[in-house]
Write a structure and sequence with these properties.
Elements: H1 9-42, E1 61-62, E2 67-68, E3 74-78, E4 85-86, H2 89-92, E5 101-102, E6 105-106, E7 111-121, E8 125-134, E9 138-146, E10 156-159, E11 167-173, E12 176-182, H3 186-194, E13 197-198
Parallel strand pairs: 2-7, 3-7
Antiparallel strand pairs: 1-6, 3-4, 5-13, 7-8, 8-9, 9-12, 10-11, 11-12
Length: about 220
C-alpha cells in the first residue's frame, strides 16, 4: 500500500526523456538566436543601413546571382575531424543532415557577406549560417539547424536584447529550426519566413574555384 502514488520507473524515464528533449530543443533555439546575433555583429559594417523599411521580400535576383560583399567568406567546422575548418560548400552540402530553407530571391543590390556553419556536431548535428547585406536594411541573417523536440512550433519574433533596432524571429519548417535576424520590422521578417523554399542554391555563381597547382618535376 505504501507504493501508492509512486510513479512507475518507466514513467519516470519517459518524463526525464521529455525534459531532456525540451532542454535540447531550447538550447538549440537559443543557440541559433545567439549565432544570428553574432553574425550581425561580425557584419557590423553592414548594419549602418537606415532604419527598418518594408518590401524586402521580393527581388529580381536569385541568391546564386548575388555577389560576395567583400570576397568569399566561407567557414564550416567539422567537429568530427582533426582538421575541422572547411572553406568549400560542396564538401559539406551533403553532410548537414537537414533540409535548409531560404528565400528564392533578394532585392537588387544585395550581397552575401558571410557563410558558414557546423557539421557532425554532438548537439546541433549540422548548422548553416548565412548573412546577407540588403540595400536598405543592412544585414539579414539566417541560422538553421535540425529541429529537436516541439519547443519551436510556431513563428515567434522579439526585439534583440543586444540591439533594440534589430528583431529576431524563430520558427520551424518541417524538421528544420530557422532563425532570421535583421534590422527590419517583425512583419517583414515574418513575410520573408513565409517565402522560404527548400535547398535553394545560394552560393554566388562568381565564387572562384580553387584548382590545385600542378608541380613540375625537377
Amino acid at each position: 500500500m505504501g507504493s501508492q502514488g509512486v510513479q512507475p520507473l518507466s514513467g519516470q524515464r519517459d518524463h526525464r526523456g521529455k525534459r531532456g528533449a525540451r532542454r535540447l530543443a531550447t538550447t538549440i533555439a537559443l543557440g541559433l538566436a545567439l549565432l544570428a546575433l553574432a553574425a550581425l555583429t561580425l557584419a557590423g559594417c553592414s548594419l549602418s543601413g537606415g532604419g527598418a523599411t518594408s518590401n524586402v521580400v521580393s527581388g529580381p535576383q536569385g541568391l546564386s546571382q548575388l555577389s560576395w560583399c567583400d570576397g568569399p567568406q566561407i567557414i564550416f567546422q567539422d567537429n568530427s575531424s582533426s582538421q575541422p575548418v572547411i572553406t568549400s560548400w560542396g564538401k559539406v552540402q551533403n553532410q548537414l543532415g537537414f533540409t535548409y530553407y531560404l528565400p528564392a530571391t533578394l532585392p537588387l543590390g544585395s550581397c552575401l557577406d558571410l557563410a558558414g556553419g557546423v557539421i557532425h556536431d554532438q548537439i546541433f548535428g549540422g548548422k548553416l549560417d548565412l548573412t546577407y547585406t540588403l540595400p536598405k536594411i543592412g544585414s539579414l541573417t539566417f541560422a538553421e539547424a535540425p529541429k529537436h523536440g516541439d519547443i519551436v512550433t510556431s513563428l515567434q519574433c522579439a526585439v534583440s536584447p543586444a540591439d533594440s533596432t534589430a528583431n529576431i524571429c524563430i520558427g520551424a519548417v518541417s524538421d528544420t529550426t530557422i532563425t532570421i535576424a535583421g534590422r527590419d520590422t517583425t512583419s517583414d521578417l515574418q513575410a520573408i519566413f513565409a517565402t522560404l523554399k527548400p535547398n535553394v542554391t545560394w552560393l554566388p555563381a562568381n565564387t572562384p574555384t580553387i584548382t590545385p597547382t600542378a608541380t613540375t618535376p625537377a
